[in-house]
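Worked example 3. Consider a protein that binds flavin-adenine dinucleotide.
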Amino acid sequence: MEGAVQNDIPGIDADCGGGMACATCHVYVKEDWFNKLPKKEDGEDDMLDMAFEPKTNSRLSCQIIVSDEIDGLEVNIPSKQA
Amino acid sequence: MNKTDALIIGAGPTGLFTAHQLKLIGLDCEVVDNLDKIGGQCIELYPDKPIYDIPAVPECTGEELTNNLINQLKPFDIKFHLGERVEEVKKDKSNWLVKTSNGKSFLTPNVIIAGGVGSFEPRKFPPTECKKFENKSLFYSVKDKNIFKGKIVSIFGGGDSALDWAVELSKECKINLIHRRDEFRGAQATVDKMQELVKSGKINLFTKYQIANVHGDQRLESIDIKHENNEIKNLKSDYVLGFFGLIMQLGPIANWGLNLNKKTIEVDTEKFETNQKGIYAVGDICNYPGKLKLILSGFHEGALAARACFKLAKPNEKYRFEFTTTSSNLLKRLGKKE
Ligand SMILES: Cc1cc2nc3c(=O)[nH]c(=O)nc-3n(C[C@H](O)[C@H](O)[C@H](O)COP(=O)(O)OP(=O)(O)OC[C@H]3O[C@@H](n4cnc5c(N)ncnc54)[C@H](O)[C@@H]3O)c2cc1C
Ligand code: FES
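Given these inputs, the predicted complex is written out as structure tokens:
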């Protein structure tokens, strides 16, 4: 998420600055990556209820911590979130 | 027409403390907020979460912080206009003419924008067709529940608002409750009650579904909902209600001729004034080199903006720096001295 904000990626606004309170950092994670990510924490699904067109592979990008294991991770942004 | 020395847009922590600072130095002010309650993000997004970095307050929740700020305003008489969005800010000779969504207007030399990341608005349904029915047969809040009597109402969402209304309206209407997953984040007692009503056939529950489309000419006739596995169902519906919480939208602030940087307003760090004389921005919404989006920064910014307002509100008087502990002037305003 921080990477997206610093690079001005449209569609990842992260209004709450990573506080899991706004769902404006919502992304779809490519299927094969989705299972490799650390599991969702309590509350993330609650917030995803409010995201724009959530799907089974939805995550809040502010809850994805970048590590070597997930180097190469690919995500998409819902078409109308931008 | 309301005349005041300063108008504050936003009743979050920054707006509240700025009001305190204005009243303390002897200026009048009024506060407008789009939410129906005072407190901004602290009350809307995290009322029960503890905050640990308010100076001299080791720990307090968002709600406690809000209540403390409201208490601190007790000595003063401040008018709050809640549930109203500021739509327009226009130059009127040496004043600003400010208009709200409820048609109220204010004339003031100083406008302080303490708007956070913008006003809280309901999150809307994605399909563009929904717009056509908005506020006719499709709503994001309930103003008059009587219109639903005897009708088929489809409710979307998994939180307390969706569940409460599903339970309440099931007494007099046919209810479809649609949610994107099996878990509900509403209070357990309400979830249980809803499940009972599902068993007794009062509520039709559809989980793992989301809205796909709405149909009808003048009136809404039916809706399509789509399952996780892409299967589509058509449901007859007279009304649709969506409860997806609130999102912050910069909204009308973008149209007031201010220098914007993404969703923030550029200010100087002496007066927290924008590129327009007499319009200030403080708290999360302002931007300057080194800006921190913290509550404590908003307090400092508000204190300085309030001092800057003095000059335009009372051009013939001079502002004097004073302490609340020792100034009899300030103590009088605080009601601590006759
Ligand atoms: C989950 C979370 C945890 C946080 N934790 C901390 C913490 O531990 N410590 C800390 O210091 N900060 C924390 N913050 C940040 C803190 O909440 C914000 O910095 C603070 O709320 C900003 O206050 P504000 O008054 O500037 O804006 P806000 O609180 O956003 O209030 C702005 C208000 O303005 C209103 N408004 C906007 N535009 C208009 C308009 N046109 N007309 C009418 N009304 C309008 C909005 O409805 C809103 O109520 C946290 C934030 C979140 C989301
Ligand atoms: S940045 Fe707000 S929920 Fe992720």
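Take a moment to read the result before moving on. The longest helix of chain A spans residues 2-6. The interface with chain B takes residues 8, 13, 15-17, 19, 21-24, 45-46, 49-50, 52-56, 80 of chain A (CB under 8 Å).
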